[in-house]
Specification:
168 residues, 2 strands, mainly alpha, Arc Repressor Mutant, subunit A, single chain
């Protein structure tokens, strides 16, 4: 039995669960040493790190799906399997801006993730598809986070000119 970090089961409100085996094999989430040595561990928020690790886990669990069309996290899995709130899930927006993941374009959604003509979509009985993601691998961690984060933060929100260029 794996022990709690404090060494006592009574010290945690939520019981610790031993990670399960999926599809007959254990999935392991790895991070390169540069995640720590280049300072990414300090530059990302706890929510961003947690969401990144979840997406890495999904990519390891479903490698074929990840390679073909990306992985997704349903609301049920988000709450039941990973125990994260919607706010933590929204950290994917910054992860994409930093180049750590890529959000798969979906014609049913605007660039900000909102469903196109949401009210009409629901009236027609449409099922809202989840966001899909590609994890970009370890190469983004091989450089300092400062340049990527600076570019991402200074370029948000996009200027009117940038938005017009994206439409054409």
């Amino acid at each position: 039995m794996l022990l709690h970090e404090s060494g006592s089961a009574e010290s945690e409100k939520r019981g610790y669960l031993i990670p399960e085996y999926y599809e007959g094999a254990r999935t392991v989430v790895t991070l390169p040493v540069q995640f720590f040595t280049n300072g990414w561990v300090y530059a990302l928020t706890d929510s961003e790190i947690r969401m990144y690790m979840i997406l890495k886990h999904l990519a390891a669990r479903f490698p074929d799906s990840h390679a073909l069309r990306g992985v997704y996290l349903s609301e049920r899995d988000r709450e039941w399997l990973y125990g994260i709130s919607r706010d933590v899930y929204e950290a994917h927006l910054m992860l994409a801006k930093f180049g750590l993941i890529q959000l798969v374009p979906n014609p049913l959604r605007h660039r900000d993730g909102k469903v196109v003509e949401f009210d009409n979509f629901l009236k027609k009985g449409g099922v809202i598809p989840p966001h899909r993601f590609f994890v970009m691998g370890d190469s983004p961690f091989f450089e300092s986070p400062l340049g990527k984060m600076r570019r991402a933060l200074l370029n948000y929100p996009p200027s009117r000119d940038q938005m017009m260029r994206q439409k054409s």
